């Protein structure tokens, strides 16, 4: 018997394709890319697995009803008519998240309020009592999405954003989001089959995500709770089997993952976060200024980093990016160097031509993930050898 249902995984701009691949690799069916989202089908166990394992998903939502809607009264009536007793009881709590893109509905807070009123009135009219709203820690989080005259009602199976993995307790100024870090690594082609360096590692997020990819460790194995654990139909035995099965798919790693930072406080924080993720045996963190370093391996090196930018740290942008280019050219032959920047003008100071530029967003900042291929010897020699 097929117990599959439709779900939607939300993500960041530019990560739709890699999230779709993640879903297919996990075993999802009918995977379709959208804008900042990927829809797919699976059963309850797969919903648990998607929350536990997906690296580039922010939320996993489960649509439960959809309808056309004309105005607030129409919304109220149709929400009221739904069978909320399948999902809520008078001794549980709920919260509403609403997003609207419609001429008929202009205020998401008003839509949330109208939805809340309809659900509360349904219970009060039927049972004489009502469930309460708890914005911070609800038992059920309901997602309302109105696009023009169409309304989708979904249950949020994740709760807090899935970037909150649970291992990062110490952060620096504007640390990179865990989902963003994982997405950049996957876009860069990192698969754990070589040596890795983050030369400006900050609080160690790229290092941690790189090690989890290399060892095929579930992205959210350190997370304390998912929203679906409070649902009426939560199957704890099934969830434990999913965790056990996912952990059985981890693999050994026989290369080096190294991080540098010149700030002692960053090194300490990175080491703490790596330890929280139980990855200290795979990751080495050293206090070093990247501009004074050389490649630590004779093998090919995969480098991904998030250099500081004007909004984060006070640096001389032209000198800083010039030093990045010079260090790569002089000291890092046989390296694929990737980094993200929101300062597109600064790239011209690197003095190298990027072989790839991928548009991504770092929080609200439009950015580029750029790749520089540093050949062994000169590029001319490399091409002569190939021909």
TrEMBL record:
UniProt keyword annotation of tRNA processing present: no
SUPFAM superfamilies in the cross-refs: S-adenosyl-L-methionine-dependent methyltransferases, THUMP domain-like
Protein keywords: Methyltransferase, RNA-binding, Transferase
Residue span, THUMP domain: 46-157
Keyword GTP-binding: no
MF GO annotations: RNA binding; rRNA (guanine-N2-)-methyltransferase activity; rRNA (guanine-N7-)-methyltransferase activity
PROSITE patterns on file: THUMP
A Pfam match: THUMP
Coiled coil: none
PANTHER family (alphabetical): RIBOSOMAL RNA LARGE SUBUNIT METHYLTRANSFERASE K/L, RIBOSOMAL RNA LARGE SUBUNIT METHYLTRANSFERASE K_L
Full protein name: RNA methyltransferase
